[in-house]
Amino acid sequence: MAATILLVEDERKLRDLVRSYLERAGFTVLSTESGAEALTLAGSAAPDLVILDLGLPDVPGEAVAREVRAAGHVPILMLTAKSAAEDRIRGLELGADDYVTKPFSPRELVLRVQAILRRGSPAAAQERPDSYGDGALVIDEPRRAVTVRGAKVELTPTEWGILVALAAFPGRVYSRFELINRVRGYEFEGYERTIDSHVKNLRRKIESDPGSPEIVTTVLGGGYRLGLTRDD
Questions:
Q1: Nearest Cα to 3, choosing from 121, 97, 159, 100?
Q2: How many CA atoms lie within 13 A of 156 on its CB side?
Q3: What is the pLDDT of residues 139-159, one digit of tens each?
Q4: CATH topology of domain 130-226
């Protein structure tokens, strides 16, 4: 079954162009120029991914992103005319899985949508979940589930991709560049530092106990690694 994309963009020509490219790629597309209608569609149509322009005429795109994220874990790809690194980081901290600045290539946008959806798809079946740190962290890839000290944790597709990449080889240091390519499947110039925002959000979710060891460890000048060992 084709994935459903909710496209929220107030520029009609751009909206029609992006819709055309997405439909040619095999997606079912719902589109609107209104933030208020986008929230209604997000609730009623249960899209697989939301492409969200931040400069909407009625409801700020940031407010739409917060409500969509609060209602569930639908991936969000943000569109904006703001290109500063601080703006990208702010968008990621709102829960976006990717951030595209205008003008952009519709073909690249389609590739990014496909990459996000691939990251969220179930992995091949395994006999049992992987456990780390004497059961402190459990990753169940087929069910795309994570538990930390017995409590289930909800992750965005990008946060999930980072954690799974780090857990594949516990203790191995991954540079930011490596994580981008492993998680996203393509290179994106200027994006290397913004991976820190995703790691920050991931840590906030999985390291809420200040007395426990770090799960994701920063290596100065190197990148990140999983701070737990795999259980036998």
A1: 121
A2: 30
A3: 988 778 899 988 999 988 888
A4: Arc Repressor Mutant, subunit A (1.10.10)
